[in-house]
Amino acid sequence: DPVEGIRSQAARRRAGRQRGDMGLVAEATFAMAYIHGGMGSHVRSFRHFCRAAQAQPGTVETDRFQNRFLAGVEALNSGHYALSQRLLAVSEGWSLNAKVPVLLNLMQLRLGDIGRAVSSADNIDLEPVRRDFPVLLVHAHVRAELDQVEGRDPGLGLKRRLEQMLALGMSEPLAGLMTWELQRRTFCASDRLVAGEALLAALRRTGFGDARHIPVLLDVAEARAETEAPGSEQLAAEAARLLRRGCSYLTLYMPEGLARCARLLRESDPREAAALVHVARRWVEHALRHLPSGAEESFTRHVVVNRLLLGGDEQAIYLQPLR
Question: What's the pTM value of the predicted model, to 2 decimals?
Fold first, then answer.
């Protein structure tokens, strides 16, 4: 029970503070970060990683993090891009080092550095992670996003990668999520709705976690709206609640997810839609203070949803393409 686990670790942290045992405080806080991350609550996870680091001795910031790779992933999820870059760069271990280029490639996409992202994606050696299907899923997503940005058909590459992963033994639910990366980009709205509803139901049955089903949840909400099927607003509201709690997944950019929810809820709940746009704008403004050096122009100009959110015209979020 993760909730019980958080309570138990919070009690250990309190005991450590009472005794002045900062080692116990750091250990319990790190455990809470790990549990929150497993629940998909990445913003809370990152905060606990930072609190655990603060309880550790040392003057070098990255040295104080007990698991620099996981902390780097949660920093990426939370928009702390500069720190994420530093943590991932010093992650130790062969298996971790093999994953880092994929995550840094995702960061380039999030920062709007499209030219560098394309070059990196084409040159990543995936052999060391050929059976690490969650990492391969992220790479396939980034490659498909870049294909779309550059006006190429993402379906061809996705189909090839899906076949390769299935041949290597990728099983559910990751096989379903990878298949969805292809279907959501190539199916017509009615077929997308049928496939998406089936995948969403399967993810709910398996209890795959709040975070990983959010992109599918939002895709299905949009497919319902596009086909005029009932229930679009309910799914959008569910996705919005999770996003506002800081839950997301690497394949969904948080401000874009919030903006998409706002679009779906604009007619039925305009106040909530406006609040979601506000939260998305604050997220981008916060991330602006945590960018690597030289990334501000690409982040604010080349990431379309960021440009719209920072432009001051709230109606643009509802009316203009988000990418």
Answer: 0.93
Phi/psi of residue 39, nearest 5 degrees: -85, -5
Q: What is the predicted pLDDT for the residue at 2?
A: 83
Residue with tokens 């709910």: 204
The H helix count followed by the E strand count for the chain is 18, 0
> Residue 211: its pLDDT value, please?
80
188: buried, middle or exposed (CB in 10 Å: 19+, 13-18, 0-12)? exposed
Round to whole Å and give the CA distance between 238 and 176. Answer: 21
Question: Which distant-in-sequence residues (6+ apart) come within 8 Å of 149 by Cβ?
Answer: 114, 323
d(C-alpha 237, C-alpha 96), whole Å = 36
Q: How far apart are CA 70 and CA 30, in angstroms?
A: 10
Q: What is the DSSP letter of 292?
A: P
Residues of the chain with pLDDT > 70, as a percent, come to 98
**Local structure of 247: helix, strand or coil:** strand
Q: Are 113 and 97 in contact (CB under 8 A)?
A: no
Residue among 50, 100, 53, 112 nearest 73 (CA) = 100
Angle, to 10 degrees, between the axis of helix 270-288 and the axis of helix 254-265?
160
Q: What would the DSSP string read from start to end of 117-148?
A: HHHHHHH---GGGTT-HHHHHHHHHHHHHHHH
How many Cβ atoms sit within 10 Å of the Cβ of residue 116? 14
Rounded to whole angstroms, what are the CA distances from 51 to 13, 71, 267?
11, 11, 41
> What is the average pLDDT across 25-39?
92
Q: 143 near 122, Cβ under 8 Å?
A: no
Alpha-carbon torsion angle 40, 44, 49, 51, nearest 10: -170
